[in-house]
Amino acid sequence: MSAILLLLLVFLGLAYVVITAYSANLYFQETNQRLxxxxxxxxxxxxxxxLQDGNVSEDNVHEIMVRMMTINPSLEIxxxxxxxxxxxxxxxxxxxxxxxxSTKPIKEYLENEGNIFISGDDPRxxxxxxxxxxxxxxxxxxTLGYVYVILASEEYESVANMLYNNYMLKVGSQAFLFTLxxxxxxxxxxxxxxxxxxxxxxxxxxxxxxGDLQARIxxxxxxxxxxxxxxxxxxxxxxxxxxxxxxxxxxxxxxxxANVSHDLRTPISVIHGYIETLIIKEGNITEENRxxxxxxxxESTDKLKxxxxxxxxxxxxxxxxxxxxxxxxxxxxxxxxIVQKYQLLAEEKKIKIKSEILADNSLVYADIALIExxxxxxxxxxxxxxxxxxxxxxxxxxxxxxxxxxVKDTGPGIPENQIPFIFDRYHKVSDEVVTPNKNGTGLGLAxxxxxxxxHNTTIHLSSKLNEGTSFSFSLPKSPVPVETV
Length: 485
Hints:
The chain has helices at 2-35, 39-46, 58-71, 104-111, 154-209, 224-280, 287-318, 331-348, 368-385, 444-453; strands spanning 76-81, 86-90, 119-121, 129-139, 142-150, 327-330, 352-358, 363-366, 391-398, 402-409, 460-464, 468-476. It is α+β, with helices and mostly antiparallel strands. Strands 2-1-5-4-3 form a 5-stranded antiparallel beta sheet. The longest helix has 57 residues, at 224-280. It is rod-shaped and about 160 Å long.
């Protein structure tokens, strides 16, 4: 960075010297032209270069030469016709290379009374221009020609340029050296200031790389490095959160393996034990006991099958492998159908189950199969914990934009300290509450939560001990009308 800065400063310094020299030269020429603008008019006033017949007066021109060369030997004087033809001149060594001089800059100069900076043709150097003074020569209202005075002759300009170049070289070198050194020092200070902040960033990043996940870059300004620091701090916070999430997932994974192992071991042990008993007592077991043992084995295999099915379903939901097939349907009809399906099971347990539809239009927008799975799991959960003579109500209420579905039971309720964990995998209510059935897989409510999450809604829980529990969720009303037959 320092080397690049030095090269830039050298380039800028040289450009500064060149521009300054060019500007100073223009300033000198313009000053010379302004101060000398009366020379040509004075010549015309004092000595007329033309005779009465319009021809050039050689005597007068000679007199002009003597006077002007005495006063200012750097001048070149030319007598021009009205078309710009050089009729006579006074110039060192009588050396000219042009026969005509453009009258356009002369006329522009005279129109502005010599108050503008303008250059005209140099008869001794074709293609070059020089500052001049000019005056129009009139006789009887007719323009006879012009007196055209070059204010810096070739010899004068040669000496002046040499002195000027020496002066600019000296002054330019000093100014360039001073500017270069001063700017370079200031640039180094500025670079140190920038790299100091950059070093803080580098050191913090190294600390983070070495394992200090709490390392953060202090932000004290609003410049680009501050934005970089803020971005790094946000990134570090995100990485830390992801690490914490991975740790949590790791703990959940270990817990899952432990719970799955335990839950699989129980039915497998039961199945193994009773089949082993049937083999050992082959021929010595009554038909009644044989049927009893086989029923237990069948029940255990059902439990094992349900556990594997629900575990597989939950895993796919957590991995977002299940995409909901969103379509409009009547939630009230689904609720009534499910109530009819569970009516017999509820009667066997001496539990009353009913629906309560408080919505004029129950058309919702969701996945039919997944929402049916949600209601089944909630009702299964309610049946497990609702005692005999209890009641389960599945209600549909209408809000402004949604339909709310609620499953309420009259079970023993859930302790307040366990409510935040009730949707965790394998969470089961503690022994503080007496439950008639604890043989569930522990995955039903976790599946409910995941299904509703992929529908961009949440499950809400309210419970009071000895009064019951209520689960509710909302679904958007369908924007698509359904044709009825």
